[in-house]
Amino acid sequence: MLDNVARIRLAYFAVVVAAVVSSVGCKRAPTYHRDVAPIVTRRCIRCHAGDDASAPPRLDTYESVVGAAPKIKYTVQRRMMPPWGADDTGICRTWRDALWLDNAELSTLVAWTEGGTPEGDPVGRAHVQPDSVPELAHVEASLDLGFDYKPGLGPTSYRCFVVDPNLDRDRFLTGIRVRFSNPQMLAQVTLFAPQTIAAEAEAIKLDQDDPAAGYSCYGSPRVDPATLVSSWTWSTPAQIFPAGTGIRLAAHRKLVAQVHYNVLNAGLNASSRTAIDLQFDDNVREATYLPLAARAMQLAPGKTYAESSAEMTVTAPSTVFGVAPRMHSLGRTMQLDRFRGASPSCVGNFDHWDFYRQRLFTYDVPLRLDAGDRLRVSCIYNTEGRAEPVLQGESIRDEECAAYLYMPSP
Ligand code: HEC
């Protein structure tokens, strides 16, 4: 028998397939100049116009787009490009600044690649601008690691660095921008705030005891208690927190910056210097992350499909502004559902899990919760490569199933 979540998933896939099929109507065949170039300009070339040999392929001329046509079809049909990670069809709600093709754009690109990639007439081509990218309004402090770090492979490529924002009073963080001197290494940066002096001292000790710079850390910052501050990935260099809200950074306290380097992409000898710009605003509501997390996970080894989940019941009316999903490398998809009475609704589908692309997703319209609502997070893993059960934990062999709910104080 199908449980509710499985039913929602089936319905969801049916609707997506129907939407994509129905929008390939009997319109005139798309051409590059009239139909394809505007889509690629808006949605793709911000990342696909670089000269670097290791940069993603250029997609800014007819010839380059024709050359990549089979790969474009493959990657957009599977929603691998643009790189985003949360379904934005509206079936599981929609997200601010989503890097997402709507169904009409997607079917135009696919129809063009299947229709012989005609060039068409450049005369009269619409002039469009790339979609705007979020930017910080101002930068008041920077956390600069201060040196070029050469991670190499293994534990040295999952690092925690103790950093100091040098605050003499509490401030609300409302956005960050991460800068890497080597863009090929751009992967993922998560900021944590140790909540006690003892936890902060423990992080400093872990750093001192580890012979390399920083200390190895994979899931958490390995000190307790520590709370999540921000979850960032490279696809949007600046990340602005939900409007009118911020995360409190305490005066005279340090942070832990967890950096996951993409060494496979950058090469074994590559190094990079990382800096994190901070934007503050004193007139915002304080927000915190509420973790909805599986506590006693045990996944069977050798499975293409293994599931873990966690549930909570909402005790007071509240609002979720964003979700930061966390799994490790076996994770495949994560779904967040709200149950109100007997009726479930999907309120987040993170269907292209990539350990190197974790981030906070902000709802276009915040999610309201009533007392009595239940929230459930379901995580799907592939454990084929494992011979032993996979447990919940912090190390590279462990897994995690957690949705960090970004919630301002009422
Ligand atoms: C935010 C940056 C970004 C955006 C926007 C983006 N891409 Fe990409 N793309 C990349 C990166 C980086 C890669 C390299 C592989 C990877 O990291 O996934 C890539 C890889 C690809 C590849 C595979 C190339 C290969 O050789 O295998 C194709 C095809 C592609 N992108 C097409 C597109 C299309 C079409 C769009 C727009 C609809 C798009 N991308 C939007 C960053 C982006």
TrEMBL record:
Matching Gene3D superfamilies: 2.60.120.230, Copper type II, ascorbate-dependent monooxygenase, N-terminal domain (2.60.120.310)
Cross-referenced SUPFAM superfamilies: PHM/PNGase F
Entry annotated with the keyword Ribonucleoprotein: no
InterPro entries given in the database record: Cu2_ascorb_mOase-like_C, Cu2_ascorb_mOase_N_sf, Cu2_monoox_C, DBH-like, PHM/PNGase_F_dom_sf
Keyword annotations: Disulfide bond
Occurrences of domain Copper type II ascorbate-dependent monooxygenase C-terminal (ranges): 319-406
Pfam families attached to this UniProt entry: Cu2_monoox_C (PF03712)
Top-rank taxon, per record: Bacteria
UniProt name for this protein: Copper type II ascorbate-dependent monooxygenase C-terminal domain-containing protein
Lineage start: Bacteria, Pseudomonadati, Myxococcota, Myxococcia, Myxococcales
